[in-house]
Each structure stands twice: as structure tokens, then as C-alpha cells.
Request: fold
Amino acid sequence: MGGGARTAYQVGALQALADLMPAPQAHAFPFDILVGTSAGALNATFLASQACSGARAFGQLAAFWSRLRSHQVYHLPRTPLSQWSRWATALGVTLCARQHGAVLDSMPLVDTLHQAIDLPGIDRALARGDLHALAVTASSYSSGVHWTFCQTADDPRAVPWSRPGRRADMQPVTIEHLMASSAIPFLFSATPLWVDGSLEYFGDGSMRQISPLSPAVDLGATQILAIGVGQPQRGAMGSGMERSAQAPSAVQHRPPTLGGIAGHAMASVFHDTLQADVEQIERLNASLSGLPEAVRRELPFSPTQVLTLHPSASLDALAQAHVHELPTDLHRVLEGLGALSGGGAALSSYLLFEPGFIQALMQLGAADVMARRDEFLVFLAAAAV
Reply:
């Protein structure tokens, strides 16, 4: 699943998972199929490019995120006076939004990904059998279709699929696919990609993602680990923070700021549909278990085990504790929108590619895995079989 900077949570979780791997698996890459959306697509593709390194790939991914900074992902449009004037910064943002359909320039991310991701390494991993498939998702602004782009080894069983509102295409994953999948609406520009012989413009794969597990299932997965980065259930305050002892009447009726509304809209874009998909798979598993063995063998379905992991703590609250790390010009803009406190902190959590927030997310991901250590050990044991 995707979520901008919040996706560093996955990195800590995967690193902890690698530490739990039993000795026979300790040096092998544990996954056959990698599927990612938005910043989750960046994580999946990085791991695919390093799959030949085995479990060391998770440490390499952690090192990449530890070095990452906001200026390597985006920057605000610059004008001659923007470093001194908030109004000049606002003018640059307005002009960029009108010209490119986005308020941030994401070209730094293109350079960062070209330097960090060894695309030929994906081919090597597929050819050696260290990996079976890589898939990333993006949403077409042109057609409204949710596309999954799959890179596999030469396997005649790997064929594109077409479902209502979502389709797949078999083509090598490139940096352009990653930029399309992670193009957060309003913040990053749409990216053109060729599909079905025509050029379409794509945005963040989290949009219209109604079935996040389906690409993995369609590619043959029977055991799935899915890591979301959604927000835990929020109280009536709507800030993502724990309730304080303050009287409810003092906080309940405060209207949201523009930043708070933007954060809520962003949460809607990254709405976590993972649990609904898991419930659907569980219902299918239950139906299959009630059928005679001879009937099950004739059906095009097989039971699928799914283990999900979600943050146990509020990522909005975590971001609010680190907003001071934001680049000065962006801090100025978000402060003017009311997006640095309360419910508005949700917006900053997608953009906080800075060390304090990244490390806090990675630590939370690792702690959440260790808190469910026994579940993950059973999952890894089944994978070894």
C-alpha cells in the first residue's frame, strides 16, 4: 500500500521480518511476487532490483530510506523572491499548479530513483528465479481505469487480465511507471504511459484501488503479506491524536482548517481498502473449505492465506511531532494552510521525507512486527514449506 513518506513504516516492518527468518531462509529472498502501489511501488521495485542479494535487500532498502531527504523527492517552485517572501512562494505554487496540474516539482524524485534502483537487477532476479513477478499499479486520468503493470520471467501462464475498472499489462517496470504510481494528486504531476497503443496520463495508484490484493492473487500468490500505512481509528477530535483530558466542549466544534480538509481529502485518496479485500478472500476460503476435494480441484480458485500489518499508533500524531523538520519554504506554506497542527498534520505526514520522522516510522514498523512475533514466525514457517 502507498502513503508518501508514511511508507517508511513498511521498511522497518520488513527489516524486522528479515531478522525473524529461520536459518535455512536467512540468506534467501523470501518473496516470489512483489506488488506495490504509490510509494509502496517504490519499495517493491527497489526490493525486486536487489532480490539477488537475498535477505540483505531489506537492509539496503532501510539504508536508502535513512539517507532520503525531502529535497531528493520534491521541491516547491522557485521564484527570485521566494526565499524571502511568503507571497512570492505562493505565487510560484499557483503558477506551477496552473502549468503542470501540481503544486510541487517531483523531478528530484526521478533523479533519486535512477540512482537508487538497479532496473537490470530485476531482470537478473527473474532470470535466476529469485523472483517470479513484480507489479506496480497506477490510475489513468485519461480513461479512469486502474492499471497494474507486471514484469515477469518468460512464463506463458502470466497473461494480462481485465476486470471491471481494472486491467493489467505485461511490460518491464521503469522509472516512469514508478513516477506514475506515486504521483499524488494535486501535489505531483501526472505521468504519461503507453497502454493499448495509446498514450494515457496516470496518477497515484491508490486512487480507485478497490482490490489491492487482486494483482498478487492473479499472479499466482497463495500466501500474502500485506503492509498498510493507514491511520488507526480516530476519535471525534479528528486529529489522529489521543484524546486529552480537556473538556470535549472545548475542542469538538472547532471548524477544520484548509490544511485539515486537505489532509482528510488525502486520507480519502489513500483510503485503506485492504481489510475489505482480506474479508472477501476469507469468505472465498470458507466457501472452498466446504466443498468436496474433487470439486475444489476443478475450480479456478485456491485458498489464499493473508497476513496483514497496520500501524498500531497514529501516524498523524507522529508527523505533528516532526513537522519542524520540513523544508523552510514548505513549512511556511503548510503553516499558512493550518496544516501543521491538529487534523492538518495529516497532510504533512505524506511529505515528511526527513530523518526524524522516517526513523520513527521504521521503529514503529519493527515494533509492530515484534509485538506479533509468533504470528510472523508461523507465516515464515509456512512459506519455507
Summary: The chain has 16 helices and nine strands. Strands lie at 33-37, 133-140, 146-152, 162-163, 166-170, 191-195, 198-203, 223-227, 305-309.
